[in-house]
Amino acid sequence: MFINSTGYYIPSGRVDNEHFFNVNGLTSDWILKRTGISTRSKAGENEGHDSMGLEAINDALKKLPYDIKDVDLIVSAAYSAYDTVATLAHVAQQKYDIAGAKAVYASSACSSFVNGLEIVEGYFAMDKAKKALLVCSEHNTYYSNESDPKCGHLWGDGAVAMFLSAEPVAPNEPEIKQIYTCGLGNVSKGPEGVKLRPKEDGITMPDGRDVFMHACKYMVHALDQVSKPEGLAITDLDYIICHQANKRIVANVANQLSLPDDRFLNNIEEFGNTGSASAAIVFAQNREKFKKGQRVGLTVFGGGYSCGAFMVEI
User: N or C: which end of the chain has fewer CB within 10 A?
Assistant: First the structure.
């Protein structure tokens, strides 16, 4: 499976740490030390889940080597959907008049993008699609409660889009060599670890320590699952991109693997936790940095619980 083009969108609005002292009593220094976040992105009044997703697609279209109407599969992956009936996949199909394409929605908390990628892989394997658009947009601030001292200060907004094909369509396209996902609903807090219940209290994380502990464990596990089949150790990867939930989690993963910080790419300090779009946004941001032949591992952990990873050879 080959990456034809990537794009992303981050709203210009920023909320700095000082904002939260009068909202939930947390100081800027405490937030920075505990999470690694200095500011977080926030969608403006006229922005939302759908508009950010379309902006990410527009960004990816700049380098797409074929007409978007050639796409025969559209997958929207997210947990903070604006509408779970007329999803972003359907909105994109209407916007770009992509006739005849399949349009589906995938949600598995912060693993959603990787699950969406695996769905594309499945359609390609069954020969039911040849070119796909995977779009992931998280409007966390639409659902988050800033006054919640446990997680109200974590969330940022952003979107990412990736065009994929079963076969290469242009020279030197990155290839996705391995994809792994796993549901972990039977592990520890499981479905109660992170919740989004819009009519009740929005996004909540009742036990952050449990989430932290299992994220550190399973993000390494997922990386191992996409490295071994290629005859590689995790330490052979040129770069690792973790889900941008907490910089201490990234530091823990680096410590487990005895790898230096410069092997890990992050954007959490500026954007906060942009949910299931986060790791793929980091990949899209650094696309020009990667060199031919390098291998990049992206690994995620989501509430519910779930984990996933994929490995890209540039």
Answer: C
Whether 220 is in a domain gets the answer: yes
Using CB atoms within 10 Å of the CB of residue 289, give its burial: 0 to 12 exposed, 13 to 18 middle, 19+ buried.
exposed
Count CA atoms closer than 13 A to 6's CA, side-chain side: 20
State the Rg of the chain over Cα. 18
Residue pointed to by tokens 């109200």: 152
Give the whole-number percent of the chain exceeding pLDDT 70: 100
What is the rounded average pLDDT of the residues 92-104? 98
- Tell me the backbone φ, ψ of residue 104, rounded to 5 degrees: -135, 160
- Is there a single domain that holds both residue 157 and residue 111? yes
| Alpha-carbon span 4 to 7, nearest angstrom | 11
Which residues are CB-contacts of 146 (< 8 A; sequence separation ≥ 6)?
Answer: 19, 20, 23, 24, 152, 153
CA angle at residue 215 from 231 to 284, to 5 degrees? 65
CA distance 41 to 35: 15
Per-position b or e across 215-253, b if 16+ CB within 10 A of its CB: bbbbbbbbbbbbbeeeebebeebebbbbbbbbbebbebb
Dig out the tokens for 55 from the structure: 């902006």
Domain hosting 233: range is 175-313
- Asked if residue 17 is part of any domain, the answer here is yes
- pTM comes to 0.97
The mean per-residue pLDDT over the stretch 254-261 comes to 97
pLDDT in tens, 172-191: 999 999 999 999 999 999 99
Spatial separation of the C-alpha atoms in residues 13 and 216, rounded to whole Å: 30
Residue 284 lies in a domain: yes
